[in-house]
Design brief:
78% helix; two-stranded antiparallel ribbon; mainly alpha; globular
């Protein structure tokens, strides 16, 4: 059927069977299954006793806030008491952590990522105990100074600005030393050895069944998938091992980069065996992970930063995306519009997640997606190390620096790591800005699908149906949006403190986030295993993709910093003061 504008409208194009035969829908069902299991396991941990303890801590917070113009030692004590209430600390949470454990950190011996004897563990803990005792002593000394400084401020009725400032400084020093002592203390308590191989094998079987069911229903061979999955999982595990090395951690080279590198080495040397390719399912893994990511995008947390954060993320991002795409078409004359759009979205929105959604919306080739993801990972590794150093060297305020990093560094994990390098304040702002930006994944995917169908393909003489916009739109984004709405509503109804216990430190960190990390690692491994350098060669001609990314990111850095300064320091300084 053809409408007045000449566009074909196919009324019968959408089939009910798509709900169980299409990959996007299976990503939704699997993602929802994980989230529901998380709710069943962790939500009941909000017992009346825990709620009473939360109320007691809140009473202390209220009293201390009324007493002093700064956060007192008792105030922090109440905050710490609430932070200790974690649903993931339950027996169920500990079991899940044990089964899904990633390889451990190591320095010299990579086998320590999997295996350590009781003797070796005890020796390591003994050495750590010396540092822990030193850190604990330093913490106690800092606490005494903080108590003395706070007492001096109290004797002046908290009206002496100099004494108040001295108290704040002393308390901050105590908090830093306490965090250091806590970290050292955990290492000194790890006196027992471990053997991760049995649990890793069990977890591999569980994931093979988890994804295999959907793969079989979609028409694939579940047996072949399971056999190939063993290799994909093994390479993903090695990526975690490499990322767990102390030196790699220091330079910010994470599992994503290693997963792709190891995959590329295999595919470009011995070649990825045909029987392994059955389990090389990049989009299946990452789309399921992205549905889980939706549950972490909570509207209440977005509003905590307010209008400044929304301007930084939702105004700058579309401008950079559109400008970069036009630059690629008009100036660089990029031969592939789909590659241009995928790189532009990857760089301007939120890295790999946006690239996957955008590539699906404009039907980019897998080689183009691989190239975009590769560029993103390289620059993310550089920016997460360099940007905090620049911010500290130049003396940029941490709120401004956090907003700058949150709006420009692609990966959510890298944003958190970079923010933590500066301060808790910078981490909070950076992570929240990135969370606000992640909301745009669905909006950008729909916009690209609409533009591609009505403009790009229509201008090429293709007769496309309006229903094609729906077909082109990545359906897993619907699951992403629903998960975000549902968990935001639950978070709001439970209240901030209970939600922190059963959602942040329960369903999310206790299950969803752990699995999302593994799903992403499997996806990056699949990208490497499915990519041959010969196939990418033609896309690198003239260096245009690299030039596009660098120029686009340069614009992104400039506009994000400018907008963040205007919003946080000129237009809404009162909001900044409360962060």
């Amino acid at each position: 059927m053809e409408n007045d504008s000449g566009i074909v409208v196919d009324k019968g194009a959408s089939r009910f069977s798509d709900l169980w035969t299409k990959e996007d829908y299976w990503a939704i069902w699997l993602g929802f299954f994980v989230l529901i299991v998380g709710m069943i396991l962790f939500f009941p941990k909000a017992t009346p006793q825990k709620k009473m303890e939360i109320d007691q801590a809140n009473a202390v917070l209220e009293m201390e806030s009324a007493k002093a113009p700064f956060k007192t030692i008792a105030w922090y004590g109440a905050v710490d008491a609430k932070k200790k209430m974690k649903a993931l600390s339950s027996d169920e949470g500990k079991l899940i952590k044990k089964v899904t454990s990633k390889p451990k950190s190591w320095k010299m011996n990579p086998l320590h990522a999997f295996l350590m004897s009781d003797t070796a563990a005890a020796e390591k803990a003994s050495k750590a105990k010396v540092r822990a005792d030193q850190a604990k002593a330093a913490m106690k000394a800092a606490l005494l100074k903080a108590e003395a400084a706070e007492k001096a401020a109290a004797l002046a009725a908290f009206k002496d600005k100099a004494k108040n400032a001295a108290a704040v400084s002393a308390i901050d020093t105590w908090r830093a030393s306490k965090a250091k002592a806590s970290k050292a203390g955990k290492k000194s308590k790890a006196t027992k050895g471990y053997n991760l191989f049995p649990m890793l094998i069990l977890f591999m079987v569980i994931l093979a069944l988890f994804f295999g069911v959907g793969y079989a229903v979609m028409g694939g061979n579940a047996g072949k998938f399971a056999i190939g999955f063993g290799v994909v999982f093994a390479v993903a595990t090695l990526a975690y091992v490499a990322a767990g090395n102390a030196t790699m951690k220091q330079y910010g080279i994470g599992y994503a980069a290693w997963a792709i590198v190891f995959g590329l080495i295999i595919s470009n040397t011995i070649g990825t065996p045909e029987w392994v390719k059955e389990a090389v399912q990049t989009e299946y893994y990452i789309k399921t992970g992205l549905v889980l990511l939706g549950a972490e995008i909570l509207f209440g947390k977005i509003l905590s930063i307010g209008i400044p954060g929304i301007f930084v993320a939702w105004v700058v991002t579309p401008i950079v995306l559109i400008t970069t795409y036009l630059f690629g078409q008009k100036v660089l004359k990029m031969p592939s519009k789909t590659l241009n759009m995928t790189i532009s979205a990857d760089m301007s929105v939120c890295g790999v997640s946006a690239a996957i959604a955008t590539a699906a919306a404009c039907k980019a080739k897998k080689e183009e997606l691989t190239l975009a993801v590769g560029l993103s990972l390289v620059f993310t590794s550089i920016m997460m190390v360099v940007m905090p150093l620049i911010i500290k060297t130049v003396g940029i305020p941490h709120v401004l620096g956090g907003a700058w990093m949150g709006g420009t560094i692609d990966a959510t994990g890298a944003v958190a790591a970079a923010g933590a390098f500066l301060s808790e304040r910078a981490l909070y702002v950076a992570a929240t800005i990135k969370m606000i930006q992640n909301v745009l994944i669905g909006v950008i995917a729909f916009g690209v699908a609409l533009y591609w169908v009505t403009k790009v393909e229509a201008s090429q003489g293709q007769r496309v149906g309006l229903i094609e916009i729906w077909h082109r739109f990545p359906k897993f984004v619907i699951g992403f949006i629903i998960a975000s709405i549902v968990f935001s509503a639950i978070y709001q109804s439970f209240g901030k403190d209970v939600s922190y216990m059963v959602i942040d430190q329960g369903a999310i960190r206790g299950l969803s986030k752990i699995l999302r990390g593994w799903f992403f690692c499997l996806a990056f491994t699949s990208i490497g295993l499915a990519t041959n350098f010969r196939e990418l060669k033609e896309y690198f001609k003239g260096g245009k993709p690299l030039i596009l990314y660098v120029c686009g990111q340069g614009l992104n850095l400039l506009l994000t910093l400018t907008m963040a300064y205007i919003m946080f320091y000129l237009v809404f300084p009162d909001i900044t003061a409360k962060i």
